[in-house]
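TASK: fixed-backbone design
INPUT:
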């Protein structure tokens, strides 16, 4: 089974009054192109996170985001009571020294506007218990991404199988035109020679030249090689070992070479029309094979 490089996965966990969100998405890329945005508390584990992603996702442009949604009660900044008390005492002392009447003073409003009265002094530390929760959430998100990739891969398999069989059917439809064109070519040459007056030709030499000319237009080898490539494409697609994308791309290129050669040797409009249709089917394969991991 093939996997698509396009995918999305997310997971959410709760720990200590906060929600831990992990979101990961990927698009096609020639290699693994990993971009991470990690909440500040977990940045010390970023190398471990990147190593985990590199182990489980072979290719793709991968974007990973880990962020924390905290409870409002935890995010509210506390009042620095000690500093507020110090401000109050100093303001009272200044009022007494300057003989200022403080009977109607709004001390609370004044103190709350003083610098650093609302501040958080505690420092968060990542515990082993919290990291275990984060790590499991990361695993769940990556697993969801892989499942998504497999589903997309199944859709690609159906698409590729359809296109390969279309090319095979078109290749078989060339046979009737191929069989009849030899006699048409021979008759056209003889008719052309008969219209030239005063020209004598050796019929044996003509037959030899005809054989040489027809051999140059023969597409038997191209048809056989293209059939082999079609079979090899399906075989590779069903190998199920992962990472078939590049190999399928190479096979598609070889298929293109045989189709192009067949087109260059096709001297009938019907055959050339069939070749154009084969090229169209192959082009759709090439576009989608870029998404295969």
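OUTPUT:
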């Amino acid at each position: 089974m093939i996997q698509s490089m396009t995918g999305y996965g997310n997971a959410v966990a709760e720990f200590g009054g906060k929600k831990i969100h992990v979101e990961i998405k990927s698009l096609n890329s020639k290699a693994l192109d990993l971009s991470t945005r990690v909440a500040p508390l977990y940045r010390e584990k970023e190398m471990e996170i990147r190593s985990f992603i590199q182990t489980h996702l072979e290719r793709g442009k991968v974007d990973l985001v880990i962020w924390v949604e905290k409870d409002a009660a935890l995010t509210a900044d506390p009042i620095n009571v000690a500093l507020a008390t110090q401000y109050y005492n100093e303001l009272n002392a200044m009022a007494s020294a300057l003989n200022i009447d403080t009977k109607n003073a709004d001390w609370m409003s004044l103190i709350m506007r003083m610098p650093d009265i609302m501040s958080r002094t505690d420092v968060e530390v990542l515990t082993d218990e919290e990291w275990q929760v984060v790590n499991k959430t990361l695993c769940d998100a990556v697993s969801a991404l892989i499942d998504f990739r497999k589903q997309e891969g199944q859709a690609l398999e159906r698409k590729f199988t359809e296109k390969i069989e279309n090319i095979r059917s078109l290749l078989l439809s060339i046979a009737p035109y191929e069989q009849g064109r030899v006699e048409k070519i021979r008759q056209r040459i003889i008719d052309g020679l008969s219209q030239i007056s005063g020209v004598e030709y050796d019929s044996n030499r003509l037959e030899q030249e005809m054989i040489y000319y027809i051999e140059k237009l023969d597409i038997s080898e191209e048809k056989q090689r293209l059939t082999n490539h079609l079979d090899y494409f399906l075989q590779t697609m069903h190998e199920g070992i992962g990472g078939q994308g590049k190999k399928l791309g190479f096979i598609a290129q070889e298929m293109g070479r045989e189709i192009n050669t067949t087109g260059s040797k096709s001297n009938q409009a019907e055959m050339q029309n069939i070749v154009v249709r084969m090229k169209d089917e192959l082009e759709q394969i090439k576009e989608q094979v870029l998404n295969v991991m």
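COMMENT: The longest helix spans residues 128-172.
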